[in-house]
Amino acid sequence: MTYINRFLKRPIYTMAFLCCALGASAQGQQKGLKIAKLKYHGGGDWYANKTALPNLIHFCNTHLNMGLASAEDVVEVGSPDIFLYPYVYMTGHGNVVFNEQEARNLRNYLIAGGFLHIDDNYGLDPFIRLEMKKVFPDLDFVELPFDHKIYHQKFQFNEGLPKVHEHDGKPPQGFALVYQGRVVCFYSYESDLGNGWEDQNIYNNPEHIRQAALKAGANILSFAFTQD
């Protein structure tokens, strides 16, 4: 069963598929299901890792036949357009602020079947934890065990996320917000997957590190699209 068929079970994915995957028009829009980077307020560099998602998309299309559009979109956290994307990626180094409308919009998106991947690019942690409490006041981030399905899609990560950049030297951790049994938000911390997805000449990461980061990212996308 293809990835598209798997995630069409959810209403938000049906909308995304109809508007994006079939939405290539005479205006030259790219064919394929689109994913997006989250634009937020507060001064943090939401726009970081410019080559990361295109490289991850290419990897997923090559190795998992996902059929994603080759370039990501940008979507604001408070925009209704967020419902067009089954997977939204968030990164940055600094401050994040969600106002009441933005927090409500993000909550509705996640409850409807959307998936948010927060990737700490170093310095995001103290801010995003506070802001996600506005989105789900009753939920706390829980660390996922190494035997969780997100680490065992096509690629096997028996010790969880790979370590891409040192940051504070802590081991990488994968946290989740779980709503009614479904992972609605995955938070990669002390790993810096996005930097690993970047063009090799940006950080000069060893190729085996880049490949590990890309494989972990592909697992996250695969899980987001196919979890029950």
Features:
alpha/beta, 35% helix, Rossmann fold, globular, 228 residues, seven-stranded mixed sheet, single chain
Can you put this structure into words, describing what you see?
With 228 residues, the chain is of the alpha/beta class. It has one domain (3-226): Domain of unknown function DUF4159 (Rossmann fold, 3-Layer(aba) Sandwich). Helix content is 35%, strand content 16%. The protein contains 8 helices and 7 strands, in the order H-H-E-H-E-E-H-E-H-E-E-E-H-H-H. It has helices at 3-7, 11-21, 52-63, 100-111, 125-135, 193-197, 200-203, 207-226, and strands at 36-39, 73-76, 87-92, 115-120, 142-143, 173-179, 182-189. Helix 4 packs across helix 5. The model is unreliable at 20-28 (pLDDT under 50).
H/E element order: HHEHEEHEHEEEHHH
Shape: globular
The helix fraction, in percent, is 25-40%
- The CATH architecture classification is 3-Layer(aba) Sandwich
In whole angstroms, the N-to-C terminal distance is 14 Å
Short structural summary:
With 228 residues, the chain is an alpha/beta fold. It has helices spanning 3-7, 11-21, 52-63, 100-111, 125-135, 193-197, 200-203, 207-226; strands at residues 36-39, 73-76, 87-92, 115-120, 142-143, 173-179, 182-189. The two termini are 14 Å apart.
Lay out the secondary structure.
Elements: H1 3-7, H2 11-21, E1 36-39, H3 52-63, E2 73-76, E3 87-92, H4 100-111, E4 115-120, H5 125-135, E5 142-143, E6 173-179, E7 182-189, H6 193-197, H7 200-203, H8 207-226
Parallel strand pairs: 1-2, 1-3, 3-4, 4-7
Antiparallel strand pairs: 5-6, 6-7
Helix pairs in contact: 3-8, 4-5
